[in-house]
Amino acid sequence: MKWLFVLFLAIIIFGGAAWFGYNYVFKEDIQVRKEQRGEVTPEPRIDLTLPEYEAAAKLRQEGRIPEARAALTAFVQKFPSSPSADAAKDLLGEVNIDIFLSRTPSPEKEEYIVKPGDVITKVAHKMKTTPELIMRMNNMSSTMLHIGEHLLISHPDFAIVVQRKPKLLVVLNHGGFFKQYHIQEEKLPAKVPPKVQTKVAEVMAFRDGKRVGFGTKEFIGSTRWIRLGNQAYTIYSVPDAAHPALSQPPPPQGIGLAAADVEELSSLVNNKTPVTVTD
Questions:
Q1: Are 151 and 111 in contact (CB under 8 A)?
Q2: Over the stretch 161-173, which tens digit does the pLDDT of each residue have?
Q3: Half-sphere exposure (CA, 13 Å, Cβ side) for 73?
Q4: Which of 1, 32, 142, 158 has its CA 20 to 30 A from that of 181?
Q5: Cβ atoms < 10 Å from Cβ of 98
């Protein structure tokens, strides 16, 4: 019986040592190797900020657009690392566009009364904005102005930051976040510098394989490109739900956004808009 007790004690000692070694030495080493290979599924994060984000989103659903913008702006500033931060930025961009490209009153807009001799390009130059921005902001279907007409005009100071790794094109207004667009595809040279400073050279519009000009009937619904000073980064349209087929093939190099996004973005920029491209 004595030898059975010794055997039982040995099993306990060596078994415990084996269990300890596996759980605190080998298992940890295996876990580290799995993490290095990217095989470990991270534990789900509990988003404690979600109720605040949902409350801000509800304001937009209820049509309380100015309140939604204030709430979303506060959320992005307060919780930059929140799991809901990216969704909040997407929604904030949509709200900013809701206000900016409409006759919705806001502090950054002023009223302009059309005078004799005014044409839309003249008004845009005088008010430091773009003709298309005036049209979209005032729900105009043509470039024709009427004496005494009341226009809402804003004075944006847009800049573009292209972030290649997260595949984002971020629009800033007076240095603050305005909207972000998600890059759909990239066609860039094999070797590109980590940072490029350039600017918008021109907005290009195509219809049935031909260039068309602003103010023409062909311009509405045309395929837009935004050519930058560094042509390797031309921003071009790719098909989306609203534009399933594009007649204009993409350029040899550039950054592709959904066609609706390029159409919207092209109304915000001019040939002075600065562009920074970073990794």
A1: yes
A2: 999 999 999 999 9
A3: 11
A4: 142
A5: 16
Tokens at residue 57, please? 């989103």
**Does domain 109-154 fall into CATH 3.10.350.10?**
yes
pLDDT score, position 103: 78
Residue located via tokens 């847009």: 158
DSSP codes of every residue in 15-36: HHHHHHHIIIIIHHHHHHHHHH
Euclidean distance between CA atoms 188 and 36, whole angstroms: 29
**Per-residue model confidence (pLDDT) at position 271:** 84
- CATH 2.40.440.10 placement within the chain: 158-278
Q: What is the pLDDT of residues 32-75, one digit of tens each?
A: 565 556 665 656 667 788 999 999 999 999 989 889 999 999 99
Write out the two tokens for 271: 């040939």
- What does the pLDDT look like over 200-259, one tens digit per residue? 999 999 988 899 887 788 888 889 999 998 878 899 999 999 888 888 899 999 999 999
d(CA 79, CA 88): 10
Query: Distance between CA atoms of 171 and 218, rounded to whole angstroms?
Result: 27
- Tokens encoding 249: 């093939």
Which residue ranges does the chain devote to CATH 3.10.350.10?
Answer: 109-154
The predicted model scores a pTM of: 0.77
Q: Which residue has the tokens 């997407």?
A: 90
Predicted confidence (pLDDT) per residue in 15-39, tens digit: 554 444 445 444 555 555 655 566 6
Q: Determine phi and psi for 77, rounding to 5 degrees.
A: -75, -35
